[in-house]
Amino acid sequence: MKVLMFGWEFPPHISGGLGTACFGLTKGLAGLKGMEVKFVVPKAFGDEGQSTIQLIGANSIPVSSKIIHFNEQDEKIEYLQVKSGIIPYTGEEEFWTIKSRNRNKKYRAVKTDEMMRIDFRGTYGPGLIEEIKNYALVAEIIAANNSFDIIHAHDWLAYPAGTAAKRISGKPLVIHVHATEFDRSGGNVNPTVYSIEREGMETADKIIAVSNYTRQMVIEKYLIDPGKIITVYNAVEPLSKQRKLLKKGVKEKVVTFLGRITMQKGPEYFIEAAYLVLKKMNNVRFVMAGSGDKMEEMVTRVAQLGIADKFHFTGFLKGDDVTQLLLMTDVFVMPSVSEPFGIVPLEAMQADVPVIISNQSGVSEILKYAIKIDFWDTFAMADSIYGVLNYPSMSEYLKKSGKKEVGELKWRRAAKDVMKVYNGLIAR
To answer: How much is the pTM?
Structure first.
């Protein structure tokens, strides 16, 4: 079976769990008999591992005058490639207004290089919606020039690409919901993003949710038929056997938060719990690893509470740096406000670290040997941290049982569940 898969990031160029999940799943699928995966990203940097899949960068595909469809009514926008350095402007609101009008064609100029290729950034910064539209354009070209049996698109950024590939090829489309706009925004939903998500969900032949928590969100917030959605839990890549521990540098215990410093991840609750713990014990340090739009606010709050001498901000970490931090950690805390799944707790458990997670996370559905609290209950969070740090028998029990539990959460098993989805669609 040949799968044409669209994503937005792939290791080592990742900003969070999405790229990690895509890597794990594609590796799992490639290990199944008869599976062949072509994974498309907006920009390929050339240093991505391709031992198990073929990676295609949309930035390497030449484009020319092309019509791309955006909805079931066959309204379309024609993209014209130009070599000029001038880029005609089309705003987000205008783009979605065009979609809703009963017109046959709209034109938008796309800047290319001398080889007729679009220069994708492949990031999440300014111009993101423009890049998503360009990615969908190239997806049509890729779909028209490759042989495949099924299309798989990861998260909202790749839904238009998957939709475009479906319309040009007629092949079944599976979309993979790793998070929704309701998770990321806390309810203050961006209507443009919501529109992209809902159109992708309505166009898809099948939807994979990373947890029942996410599945219910799709049903309630996007009004999608429950029979169309299946839950396939994420897994975790085994830790490298070479685990050279850097010198810790401090004698105190270490409690770690690792994730984006955004509203969704609940960093403020971690800080408040840290303050409560430090009122009861002094031989502990807290680490907040990550970056995000709430970083300045969190630094300010730590200073206000007077705990800056016991609190450390590392900035964004990836790869071996993440592993080294986890190996130095005595307790890992994930206080997410709305977490579709949450792979980092699994990585922590692999590193023999007891974990505390919020009930508002998808991973809480499958873990037995993790302490679970409500994200807002900072007293329960603080009590749990204190208990693990001060009762060695509790810590050892969570380490031993947790490592055994997480050892059974393999990507190959998730890949088999995904393959069942594929087979069901192809057999129809």
So the answer is: 0.85
Helix (H) or strand (E) holding 299: helix 295-305
* pLDDT tens for each residue of 56-70: 999 999 886 454 444
Domain that residue 8 falls in:
2-64+121-235+413-426
Rounded to a whole number of angstroms, the distance between the first and last alpha carbons of the chain is: 15
Distance CA 223, CA 296 (A): 37
Q: What angle do CA 315, 258, 263 make, to 5 degrees?
A: 85
Percent of the chain clearing pLDDT 90 (strictly above): 72
Average pLDDT of the chain to the nearest whole number? 88
The secondary structure of 361-387 as a DSSP string is: BGGGGT-SSSEEE-TT-HHHHHHHHHH
With the CA atoms of 117, 109, 6 and 75 taken in that order, what torsion angle do they form, in degrees rounded to the nearest 10? Answer: -150
Please tell me what DSSP assigns to residue 107. E
Q: Are strands 284-289 and 253-258 parallel, antiparallel or unpaired?
A: parallel
173-188 residue pLDDT tens: 999 999 999 998 877 8
Average pLDDT rounded to a whole number, residues 245-264: 87
157 & 283 share domain: no
* CB 345, CB 331: distance < 8 Å: no
Considering the domain architecture, whether residues 325 and 212 belong to the same structural domain is answered as no
